[in-house]
Amino acid sequence: MKLTYYGHACFSVEINGKTLLFDPFISANELAKHIHVVEIKADYILLSHGHADHIMDCESIALRNGAKVICSWEIHEWLNAKGVTNTHPMNTGGKWTFDEFTVKCTVAQHSSSLPDGNYGGNPMGFIIYANGESFYYSGDTALTLDMQLIPLWANLKFAVLPLGDNFTMGIEDAIRAAQFTKTTNVLGVHYDTFGFIKIDHIDAVEAFRKENLELTLLAIGEQKDF
Ligand code: NI
Ligand code: MN
Fold first, then answer.
1. Looking at the chain, which terminus has fewer C-beta neighbours within 10 angstroms, N or C?
2. pLDDT tens figures, 89-134
3. Which residues pair with 103 in a beta bridge?
4. What separation in Å is there between the alpha carbon of 9 and the centre of ligand 2?
5. pLDDT at 4
6. Distance from the CA of 134 to the center of ligand 1, in angstroms?
7. Are the beta carbons of 160 and 187 closer than 8 angstroms?
8. What is the CATH number of the domain that holds 220?
9. Which ligand is nearest to the CA of 22?
């Protein structure tokens, strides 16, 4: 599965000829000045929760591409009221099969308000299944025991986990999350963007390596085949 990293917790994955874009936050990311939102392609946009650093560029990308937005019921209603009507509402624990892939919404231990103060419903993570393979994006979350359920549902090829601490798991808990979900291949996200979440890249990769886990930290705009 070809993955492109757009900074913070935004990335896209190509599946069966379609582009799934996760948590678009590019235009206000000081580290992603070289990424142009108007050039981003998406057939589906998946939103883990309503915080601005996950949905800021959703509306413009969705409308320009005619992309379908997959999100909580509450964010779906909020987007519909703004004129973004190609949406698919879901909630924690639910699964749905689209034409090219299946999504299961997992528990995330976080909060989810929308930028205007509206309630965003439950924060979520996603397991994406396609062609006999699967991966997990946890969304913004603490380490939770619920992650131990994930191997019952999927044999993950890789997991996308936040590393920045302060607002989410930090490196130590992300290592435990990899162990709970039984994956050895982790893409780190949600680090370096703001002052509170800066990490030492070399230390992070080494901490994972000591547990026989492979941590990938991509440059913004970089691609990797998982
Ligand atoms: Ni958040
Ligand atoms: Mn966040």
1. C
2. 999 999 999 999 999 999 999 999 999 999 999 999 999 999 999 9
3. 96, 128
4. 7
5. 98
6. 24
7. yes
8. 3.60.15.10
9. 2
